[in-house]
Specification:
Protein name (chains A, B): LacI family transcriptional regulator
Distance between the termini of chain A: 63 Å
Largest interface: A-B, 56 and 56 residues
CATH superfamily of the largest domain in chain A: Response regulator
Structural class of chain A: alpha/beta
CATH topology of the largest domain in chain A: Rossmann fold
Keywords (chains A, B): DNA-binding, Repressor, Transcription, Transcription regulation
Pfam family, one (chains A, B): LacI
GO molecular function (chains A, B): DNA-binding transcription factor activity; transcription cis-regulatory region binding
Helix content of chain A: 40-55%
Radius of gyration of chain A: 25 Å
Strand order of the largest sheet of chain A: 2-1-3-4-5-11
Oligomer: homodimer
Number of domains of chain A: 3
Number of strands of chain A: 12
CATH class of the largest domain in chain A: Alpha Beta
Chain lengths: 326, 326
């Protein structure tokens, strides 16, 4: 069975196609009788009004694109859920892309989303060097990523998060603290966590050692890097990891190196998603306010779409979830 | 600055709008000179070809809609990621909706996605009673949900999963085994897990006790139900939970009732996502083959879009992750 077309509705209603279009788009003068005829014909034919046709009149597509490294990661999964729910309530649908921090893939998404005429973008992915972001002529909001000077950045207070993690570890007597973070060339406010770590170590004349792992490494590749923490730092007594996935991998690995957590090794993670707090409540972690970040990102994007002035930076407070690992 | 329009490209290239359209859609005879002129003008203006205009010619939108209860849940998050990655490689973009098993919201999504002219749908949400699925005139594939008799269902072998969970618990000597699942009126193949549980209990003259919790209950509401497991079944020595989130909540609660896991209470979960196996490797769980399910769902949908015959049912094998909780 073929889908019914505008033509079929027009024929059944005994009205011109142009008039049916005007009814669908609520344009111009329309008698109640005409409107009723069109809706009766649509109902009889199970006709679904076509947004594509509508868009040609309205310009708005009511589509928002989201680009994240991967929604399989609980932080981005929870964030994408929170964003989508809020955008749905404002009448928007959401197109989603998992860029895996691959600049090529991110560029392709960006081109496709622009081609698809989204009304705006929320980007939690990687690469400041993608030229399209500058030429997009599109309302864009970034989450925890610095894109270019005109794109507002919503993030939590990453310096304070790093400071809170370090205060916990130092108070428990840790001195040989190792840090794990993403590559420092990534234009991410999360590098502020590293800055807090390094400043607090230096202030105490302690050596700062940071291991970097890229987000899109496989578990096996990450473990290869993390082995070096134990092999090259025999005295390591604490790890401050910049996300809970890495913290969990390090806890897994500690067993192999005969380090008991927390007796021999303290571990603090970062993000504190609902899922990690359910599955691993024993992990001490810095909790990002995901709902508030999502709320601020959507509000800022709506303001940009409406042509209003917006702040270039929104920084939200973090909290601590105290478990047993530190 | 206003976005450049097809008009602007046509003017700059000194060519009619129709011809520019034909170049964008690769239709009819076009000289190399014309093509080059159009692309040069597009580049100079940073013009992004508009899919909306294209769709009117091509009919295909290269959009696929996904409807899941919530991608904040690690099973659906990992599934949505696997689906999106595969669809991206086939040239599709993905529209996503979190229905929270709310039939009203699901219906709204469905109408919006149809209106947006998606080329197909993959649905892991709830409700067989939504009339639109029958009138959609659209290629649809369901994951672990029975929609109507014409919609192919991709799932893992839920009966075998239930059987495997029960075999583990019975072999460890458990006799007072309680089951947790979704409401039985849900048209879900996951009810096969319950059937395996009940049949294996009955075959041993053991009483079958199933507690049901709806997917969209809050953590607090679920815990209220799970308390009854401990309050009304003093002798309970094992729980077979139909997902890992519920299994984790029950393990959390067991402490309160002075039940040590696994000494006093064995627990088997279900799903075995990457995330639960990383965060909670000690949980014994039945592992669904998420990548294979995603692969089969995408292949089946592609076949439906191409007008090919497809199987009405694809059932994939489960495996066991042996942790310490059972």
């Amino acid at each position: 069975m073929q889908s019914p077309k505008l033509d079929d509705v027009a024929k059944l209603a005994g009205i011109s196609k142009t008039t049916v279009s005007r009814v669908l788009n609520n344009r111009g003068y329309l008698s109640e009788k005409t409107i009723k005829k069109v809706y009766a014909a649509m109902k009889a034919l199970h006709y679904q009004p076509n947004d594509v046709a509508r868009q040609l009149f309205n310009k708005e597509t009511k589509l928002i694109g989201l680009i994240f490294p991967t929604i399989a990661n609980p932080f981005f999964g929870q964030m994408a859920y929170q964003l989508e729910t809020r955008l749905f309530n404002k009448g928007y649908k959401v197109l989603i892309g998992n860029s895996k921090n691959d600049p090529k893939k991110e560029e392709t998404y960006l081109q496709k989303l622009i081609a698809n005429q989204v009304d705006g973008l929320i980007v939690g992915a990687h690469n400041k060097d993608i030229e399209e972001y500058n030429n997009a002529n599109l309302p864009i909001v970034a989450i925890d990523r610095i894109m270019n000077k005109d794109i507002p950045v919503i993030s939590s207070d990453n310096y304070d998060g790093g400071k809170k993690a370090m205060e916990i570890l130092l108070a428990r007597g840790a001195r040989h603290i190792v840090h794990v973070n993403g590559p420092s060339d990534l234009a991410s406010p999360a590098q502020e966590r590293r800055r807090a770590y390094e400043e607090m170590m230096r202030a105490r004349n302690l050596p700062a050692v940071t291991y970097t792992v890229d987000f899109n490494l496989s578990e096996a590749e990450k473990i290869k890097v993390f082995r070096k923490i134990f092999q090259n730092n025999k005295q390591v007594d604490a790890v401050f990891a910049s996300n809970d996935v890495d913290a969990s991998l390090i806890i897994k690995l500690a067993k192999e190196y005969q380090k008991r957590v927390p007796e021999d090794l303290l571990v603090v993670g970062y993000d504190g998603t609902d899922i990690v707090r359910l599955f691993k409540p024993e992990l001490t972690t810095i909790v990002q306010p995901i709902e508030q970040i999502a709320e601020a990102a959507v509000e800022t994007l709506m303001d940009k779409i409406a042509g209003k002035e917006t702040p270039l930076k929104v920084v939200l407070p973090v909290t601590v979830h105290k478990g047993e690992t530190a």
